[in-house]
Specification:
about 600 residues, 6-stranded mixed beta sheet, 5-stranded mixed beta sheet, 21 helices, about 35% helix
């Protein structure tokens, strides 16, 4: 998630620089498979990043007593532990499990012997500083570090974890020596389900190509920005890599003031209402034309409450794409100090157990959702309980005949988290997200990432599922299973993949292995979609032979995906279209290469 309604200001230049660097890491996260994001000519993405999986189980259980609002006296003599987190509705489960910012009487945390304080912190740099301060105290011999502004764990978006963990690991190595201390993902407690979104005119939704030439305000490098990129790339649009220039043939992004998502909404509103424009140097085919374009803001990528601000202030706008479609991208991920956690595994497991149990209560009983909204408002000291209650569920609106959606969050119960990490069904959804983003970072080297960080911490080192598996006496439920028996007709996204085959055959070249792995990683994040595959060739050879070759090549991709576990029932159509639908002129080598492709269409 991003930052909302900031009330704290950085006091030093160094803290500001930390924010820039950290955001820059995620900013580069999609460059390699989207070469149009590099400085130079805008290009289309070479992959499709979509997310349509429904990890949402309900375990039937008796209603539990609600936590009170009074601070617990039963755990006051137990060691105090702290978790720092953004103001984010998907954390409702862990917050109501605690009864509010501090453990309350009758809460699940109290029942499980945990004395927890949850601290709102909207600055990514401060989350890192709090965790570093905890390690400093722990290194000095404090078994339970409790200094102000220190935390043994933080909660952040799961897709940002590869950068956060890798940069944090480098900082820990530099300060304390190589591999003395580590931070690890220990679990997830929820997920964004619609609140992060791209807002624009309805035409962008009906005809994505109409986004060409648009200027979108956003915080470059975080989840909402990625959601906007995903939508553009999934629909074959080029993206301008340079926020100081304007490419009329691409989607352009404007970096919002102060890296603030509220500013993203305000900038769109100001531009649409007062005619405010941004002066940008025009670029075509990667070259400056010498012209300066004064461009209005056409849309924004933001989150709640930014979405509500836009829809209240403007007419003619809707949510174009959100984490409801890309809904495995942004799990509410707990990252803890490994060495402390392994010394106190029961505390970590009991925190997760309490959160997952409370989440399951929220899924079944409205009284628990109401109590959660009260605890969230108290913890964040922001908005009313009714606001958080309504926005958790997601709200629909209509203005001048145009429908729109606001908010939308989910919490994880035990069955959800076991499924999300592939423990129950063998499909590790988070590993696909983590590895995908790690590849982006490695190949793109954003802001000298590879020079400042010696290595990207691999998934198996970055994620420790022991603490989830260590949970006892909790309802496990049954894992959700996608239903592929019904025919799908609505196109969610369509992406073209240049997969290399041996000349005149359907044997996939070794050079395309990484592309196929990427396709697989993305498809398991979109489990509720059915698939249609189309094979295409250039015009070399006879038309009849090309029909057969394109069919066999599409089937070769299907066969690969089936070996990875994608079920046959998910493939609705596998079609060879031969040379009939070229995307480029077949008179050149480059044109023929682009025509030899496989199109994967996701249907819902």
């Amino acid at each position: 998630m991003g930052k909302i309604l900031r009330t704290k200001k950085l006091t030093t230049l160094s803290e500001l620089l930390i924010v820039v660097v950290l955001l820059g890491g995620i900013l580069g996260a999609v460059y390699y498979f989207a070469p149009g994001l590099r400085v130079g000519e805008a290009k289309t993405l070479d992959e499709l990043n979509v997310d349509k999986n429904e990890v949402n189980n309900v375990i039937t259980s008796a209603k539990l007593p609600l936590p009170s609002t009074s601070t617990s006296s039963d755990v006051k003599n137990k060691p105090l532990v702290r978790i720092a987190a953004y103001a984010w509705n998907a954390q409702s489960g862990i917050i109501v499990a605690n009864g509010g910012p501090k453990t309350t009487k009758g809460s699940l945390m109290e029942q499980n012997g945990v004395n927890l304080e949850i601290i709102r912190q909207d600055w990514l740099s401060e989350l890192r500083n709090m965790q570093m301060k905890f390690v400093e105290e722990f290194d000095r011999g404090e078994e339970y570090p409790d200094a102000d502004k220190s935390a043994f764990a933080i909660i952040m978006m799961g897709d940002g974890a590869p950068f956060y963990i890798s940069t944090m690991q480098q900082a820990l190595d530099d300060k304390f020596g190589k591999d003395k201390y580590h931070v690890q993902v220990v679990g997830a407690v929820g997920i964004s389900y619609g609140e992060d979104k791209l807002i624009g005119p309805p035409s962008w939704k009906v005809d994505p190509k109409s986004m060409k030439g648009a200027l979108i305000s956003t915080v470059l490098g975080d989840g909402d920005w990625v959601t906007a990129l995903n939508y553009a790339f999934a629909n074959g649009l080029k993206v301008n890599p340079d926020s100081n220039t304007y490419d009329p043939e691409a989607v352009n992004f404007y970096p919002s003031q102060d890296d603030d998502y509220i500013k993203s909404a305000e900038e769109l509103i100001k531009s649409q209402k007062s005619g405010w424009t941004v002066p940008l140097k025009e670029v075509k085919n990667g070259k400056l034309t010498g012209k300066t374009i004064n461009k209005k803001i056409d849309g924004c990528a933001t989150w709640t409450p930014g979405d509500k601000m836009v829809f209240d202030a403007l007419s003619g706008f809707t949510d174009v794409a959100s984490t409801k479609e890309f809904n495995n991208q942004m799990a509410t991920t707990v990252i803890a100090v490994k060495e402390w956690s392994t010394q106190h595994p029961q505390i970590v497991s009991n925190i997760l157990k309490s959160a997952l149990t409370a989440s399951n209560q929220m899924k079944q009983y409205d009284e628990w959702q109401v109590r959660a909204s009260e605890a969230v408002a108290d913890t964040y000291d922001l908005e009313s309980a009714k606001y958080w209650y309504d926005m958790f569920k997601g709200q629909k609106g209509s203005k001048n005949g145009i429908d729109y959606n606001m908010g939308g969050s989910r919490v994880f119960n035990y069955s959800d988290v076991m499924q999300y990490y592939g423990i129950t069904d063998g499909t590790n959804r988070y590993k696909a997200v983590y590895n995908q983003v790690s590849t982006y970072l490695k190949e793109l080297n954003p802001f000298g990432f590879n020079e400042s960080v010696k290595r990207i911490v691999p998934y198996d080192e970055a994620v420790n599922l022991y603490f989830i598996k260590n949970i006892n006496d909790i309802e496990s439920g049954t894992a959700y299973k996608a239903d592929y028996t019904k025919e799908a007709s609505e196109v969610m996204a369509s992406g073209e993949w240049n997969i290399s085959f041996d000349t005149g055959s359907a044997n996939i070249s070794a050079s395309s292995q990484s592309t196929l792995e990427t396709i697989y990683n993305l498809l398991i994040q979109a489990e509720d979609t059915k698939l249609s595959l189309e094979g295409h060739t250039d015009n070399t050879g006879s038309s009849e032979a090309n029909y057969d070759l394109s069919q066999r090549r599409a089937q070769a991709v299907v066969n690969f995906l089936r070996t990875k576990g994608i079920p046959q029932s998910r493939f609705q159509n596998v079609i060879g279209k031969g040379e009939d639908e070229p995307v480029e002129n077949n008179s050149t080598n480059s044109g023929r290469a682009k025509n030899r492709r496989v199109v994967i269409v996701l249907l819902k």
